[in-house]
Each structure stands twice: as C-alpha cells, then as structure tokens.
Specification:
By secondary structure, the chain is mainly alpha-helical. It has a single domain, classed as Growth Hormone, Chain: A (Up-down Bundle), CATH 1.20.1250. The chain is 84% helix and 0% strand. It is built from 16 helices and no strands. Helix 10 runs parallel beside helix 15. The radius of gyration is 20 Å and the shape is globular. One of its GO terms (molecular function) is transmembrane transporter activity. Its main location: membrane. It is found in: Cell membrane.
Length: 417
C-alpha cells in the first residue's frame, strides 16, 4: 500500500520529500540550538527559556492560524512559511559568526536566541497546521493511516535518526555550519511544495474572524472525544517538553556525553520512532484504536520513570526509543481519526483548536522543567534535580493513563462517531 501510494501519487511524493528535508534540518537544529544555549550559559532556567520561546507560538498563534489556513491557499502558505524559516535561520549563522560563544553578556545572547526561536516557532505553527490540513486533499481517506505512518516514519528517520548525529559532526566542523545546513533544508522544502500540483481550493466566503474562529471552537466543543484527546495530548506534551528541555544537561552532567554522544542518544530514541511509524498502522488495526491509546499512555509513563532512575546512556536510549515508538502509535490513531472526521471546510480551524490545547502546553512544560531543576538544585544537588522532570512526568502520565482507561472509547477506523 505504502509503496503504491508513493509510486502513483506525485503530490504525495513531493509532500513527503518536503517533510523529509525540512525535518532533517529540524533534527540538526534539535541538537544545535540547545547545544549553542549550553555554550552560552549553564543555567537550566535560561536554557529552558529558549525552548519555551520556540514553543510559545503554539499557545499564542495556533487559534488564528486555523482561521488563516481555512481562508488561504494551503500550499502557498507552506511555501511562504518555509522561506521565512530559511531567512531567519540564515540570520542565526551571521549572529554566531559575529559573536561566537563564550560571550560577554550571556543574558543578551540568550535573549537573541529566544527571539530567533520564537520567530521560527511562529512560522512552524502556520506551516505544520497547513501541512496536516492539506494531506486529506492529497491522498484518499482510506489511505490516511498508511500515509500518516509513512510520513512520520520518514520524519523520524531524517529528523531524529540522521539529524542529531549529523549535527554533532557539523558542530565539530564549526558552530555556524549546522545552522547554515538547516537554512538550506528550508529552502529545499519550499521548492518541493512549490512543485506540487493541487487543484485550487475554493475557500468559503470570508466572514468576521471571530465568527469563523467560533465555528471551529463550537465544532470541537460538540465533539467530546476530540477535545478529551486534545487535553490529554496537552498533558503529555507538557511532560515531554519538561523532560526534553533538560535532556541536554542530563546528557552532559549525568551521562557524561559530548555533542556527538548526545546526538547518538537522540538517534537511538529515533530508532523507536522509525519502528513505530512502520508498525503503527498494523498495530492500530490489530489492537484497535482504544487499546492502542491506552497502551501508549502506560508506555509513556514507564519511559519517563526509567530515564529518571537511569545511570547508563543505553538505558536512556531504550526509554527514548519506547516513548517515540508509542508516540507514533498515538499519532497515527488520533491524527487519522481527526482527518477522517472533521469536515474539510473546518479542518484548519478545528485542528488549530486541537493543537492549541495539545501543543499550547509545551512552552509551559519547557519553562516548568527549567524552574524545577533551578529550584531544587540548591537543596537536592544537581543530579537529583535533573532527574525530577522525568520522575514527576512519569507520575503525571501514569495518572493520565488511569483516566484514559476510564474515559477513552475510540470508534473503529472504518466508522465515524
């Protein structure tokens, strides 16, 4: 099915190619940005500010992004967002060249890095909402699980399997190199989307921004299962960001890893994501959507707890792989369900409301991770404080798993609710 989809669907090939190259750049920046921040300062709170700045747009702009996505040509929106990210990331190259770390004023340098992360995150909100919204117009409804699974597998391979260790090698060459590489991938992604040929979409007549936004809010409010999934995703993502933000310090201070080692650690986690992307459509069919989500929640809780007590890099790698693999299963089930269920005219707005709750919690999680470590480090010590985001996150998601067992009842993939 997947190979036929790639072979027969030209637009899907270009969309996947755009996703592959842009996620390769994201994988490089996933290591390069926090590593640059850790060269500027060792303060966990300041480092968490850069992660929060990159995710804050998901809280601020997700709702209006949905209205914009339903109003405009989604393909052109993706192109413009990628070109904007190209220009901003190219600016980082010049910043690093002009003032390489260590710097005289770490606070000012972190502020500049936060500004860049905020701009990139703002463009990502528009681009990702448009990309997820455009997929149902590129493939048939029956192919959505296969298409989503394949897209996320490629994203994991490039963004998590290849990107982080490549970033370690590029950093070893020169600090500006990974950011130049990231900029080039955005330009190439924009070219791939430009080569897609999609019939012009006739958008509904424009009305008041508030009226259009209210329609999206009303639809998701009337669909209890979808807003429950959005809230649960928000809790998961908050815990994930608290953990991920501190991982660069966890790797250095507890595991004793350098840039290349940290990149390989992220790559090991990506192995689980790749396996999850390949297996998730079949597992979802075999287990059914309800069981798939319940098992995923338990796996997330166990992964966080395992990292919280781990002392060896291979244990952390195993936990990251499990988290990523079951994350893929969660995504295949929930995103395919939304794409199949939400009307096309409302898809951008409802997706944006969903992501407001599901992704808007990420900046809060990022800053919470830094505050948690900074607050408890003086009394508990550096190592114990760095373990707290994982141990507390595991406990929170374990509670969420209990709630999910009680309230999650997903329809079969072949049926609409």
């Amino acid at each position: 099915m997947s190979l036929m989809l790639l072979r027969e669907n030209r637009n899907y090939r270009w969309l996947m190619s755009a996703s592959a190259v842009s996620n390769l750049g994201d994988g490089v920046s996933m290591l390069a940005f926090p590593w640059l921040a850790s060269l500027i300062t060792r303060d966990p709170f300041l480092i968490s500010l850069t992660a929060m700045a990159g995710r804050l747009p998901w809280f601020l702009f997700t709702l209006p992004a949905g209205v914009w996505t339903d109003r405009v040509d989604r393909r052109k929106l993706m192109i413009r967002a990628d070109l904007f990210r190209f220009a901003v990331t190219l600016g980082v190259v010049f910043l690093v060249l002009a003032a390489p770390p260590p710097v005289a004023s770490p606070g000012m340098a972190i502020a500049a890095l936060c500004a860049v992360a905020f701009l990139l995150g703002s463009a990502e909100v528009l681009r990702d909402n448009a990309a997820q919204t455009v997929l149902p117009s590129v493939v048939r409804a029956a192919d959505l699980e296969a298409a989503n699974g394949q897209m996320w597998t490629v994203e994991r391979v490039t963004g998590h399997f290849i990107g982080p260790p490549l970033a370690g090698l590029l950093i070893a060459m020169a600090l500006p190199v990974p950011f130049a590489f990231d900029a080039a991938t955005f330009a190439l992604a924009a070219t791939c989307v430009w080569l897609m040929v999609i019939p012009a979409r006739i958008a509904p007549a424009r009305r008041s921004f508030r009226v259009e936004l209210r329609e999206g809010l009303a639809w998701i409010w009337g669909h209890v299962l979808i807003w429950r999934l959005a809230i649960m995703l928000g809790v998961i993502n908050a815990c994930s960001m608290a953990s991920l933000t501190m991982l660069v310090l966890f790797s250095q201070d507890i595991l004793g890893l350098g840039a290349v080692g940290h990149g390989l650690l992220l790559t090991a986690g990506a192995v689980g994501g790749v396996a999850g992307g390949l297996l998730a459509p079949g597992v979802a069919r075999r287990w059914g959507p309800t069981r798939s989500l319940r098992v995923s929640l338990v796996a997330f809780a166990c992964a966080y707890a395992l990292i919280g007590v781990a002392k060896a890099p291979w244990v952390v790698a195993l936990a990251l792989a499990a988290e990523a693999g079951f994350g893929m299963l969660w995504n295949v089930v929930t995103v395919s369900f939304r794409q199949r269920t939400i009307p096309d005219a409302l898809l951008g707005r409802v997706n944006s409301v969903y992501r407001f709750f599901g992704w808007g919690m990420m900046p809060l999680g990022a800053i919470a991770g830094g505050l948690l470590v900074s607050t408890f480090e003086p009394t508990l010590g550096r190592e114990t404080a760095l373990r707290l985001p994982y141990l507390i996150g595991g406990g929170i998601v374990a509670g969420l798993a209990v709630v999910g067992y009680l309230i999650l009842r997903m329809p079969d993939a072949d049926n609409k609710p």
